[in-house]
Protein: DNA polymerase
Amino acid sequence: MPESVIFLDYLFILVPKLVSKSAIVKRQLYEKQGAKCFYNLSSIGKGKDQKNSNDKVVIVLQNYKSLRDKINKDFLVKCLDIEYDDRSFSLKSIVLKYPIVKNDWIVESLKAGKVLPLQQFAYDISHVRVDSEISQDYLLELSDRSTKARKISEIKNQDGPATKQIKLEDTDELEKALASLSNREKFKRDNQDNDDEDDEDLLADYMAVSKNVSGPNKEIIFFFNKMANEYKQVGESYKYVNYRKAINTISKLDYPLKTYDEAIKLPNIGKSLALKIEEINKTHKLSKLFFLQNDIKYSTLNKFMKIYSVGPTIAKNWYDRGYRTIEDIEKKVDNLTSNQKLGIKYYNDWNSKIPREEVTQHYEFVKNIALKEVDSKLEIFIMGSYRRGLPECGDIDILITKKNCNDKSELAAILSKLISRLKSKDHNNYIQCSLIHSGINSKSLKFYGGCLINENSKCRRIDFLMVPYEELGASLIYFTGNDIFNRIIRTIAIKKGLNLSNIGLTFKKTGEKCIENSHDEKTIFDYLGIKYRNPEDRNIGY
DNA sequence: TAAAGGCGTCG
DNA sequence: CGACGCCT
Structure:
């Protein structure tokens, strides 16, 4: 026996605490192998076994396979009996201190007759959901389960063979594992099933998106794009921008980015992004991404912010008040703005992409009405992602100008007339709703709303922008984007002491115009000292 | 450490 | 008018 004592320097925290006979038999087996066993962190050293300074503490998830869906932050916090801190990342500090492994680490180690490396059995903390309601219920259920099961079997049969059977089954499994290697494949299969499924989901996702991305670093770009979108949707706009800029840097490389050291030297890539690049290359996963996607707080903020007119402040406020679903919001929030109500009404429609071909249809439809029924001298362009050549668009952006017309009230009147025509029954109420209230006498040069091209279609977001002719160049740049491109060239302007907006290019200090009449974009590019870029080349960062 | 800029809506 | 959100 002495030579088989492999866990001599180990201290196991067994979670959750299971009191079934089989669990206790297992615990005794671990102890025979030299391990000290506890059920939570705070009881270490309180029992007969004292912690030695060289003891390696390992948190072992018992019955991992059947519990994996139930494990979340509150579950672990409660099991480990640690101080609860509601910040999303508090578990990280524990994990840094003590490894968390699935129980097959013990099983496989026993089979191998030696302690196997923890890494390959490590429980991925990034999967841990922060979800108090589910886990509280589950913990209650769990604490009863084994006693309940035993009681039922005892009632069925007073001699208790059922109990014995449970015990035999579980210890059998372990003994089989110890005794024979023929089970090795089965164990492997059983325990890797779920991970394989995760990988397949990821792969499908990856394949779908990677159609649009090629090059030696497409995997990194894929993950960084996911991170960018995740951060955008929870209101972390600087992180969003930084990821997009990093993608821009990486997508220019013609060689695969392999190491931290290579990455850190590149512009727009700092320590944390370089580490993530290394993680992606090693594991083909990004734990932070899975954390964000599975964290109840982040996914709820994400959900709320997809409502038009709900930003980070309101989403956080709702989250803090305990709201978790769109239904909660509809029922319990009594001060929704009219735009937010529309955002909920059209939640699905406005979160769907629009095929490029449909945008073309809208363009033809609006152009026709504008020229025939409003003013034949108008010039009408589709902007945004459409002008940048993308196959799908988030919305429909229409810029309208009139040659040599700088009269804003005339332009406003044109817009009012156009909108009222598009709202009319003559055109099947094409405009369904307004997000910027532009009445017939509105002086606004903008209109945002929802529109319907035909009965079978979805309601689409449409934006109109009336532009004085002298502002056309700056407006074309602004309304073409993308957002990151705009920020980059505006930053270039700042560095030259200038200010670039949709109105024009001015001197930062005096506010005077740099260019009197900038009808075209090229003049502005020239003044900034940068080469003209076609709209298709302004898709910065994915 | 800094990070784009203008404008509409709400209270 | 400040805070918030939206547009690229």
Notes: Residues 237-238, 241-242, 309, 337-339, 435-437, 444, 446, 448, 478, 483, 486-491, 493-494, 499-503 of chain A lie near DNA strand B (CB under 10 Å from a C1'). The longest helix of chain A spans residues 184-210.
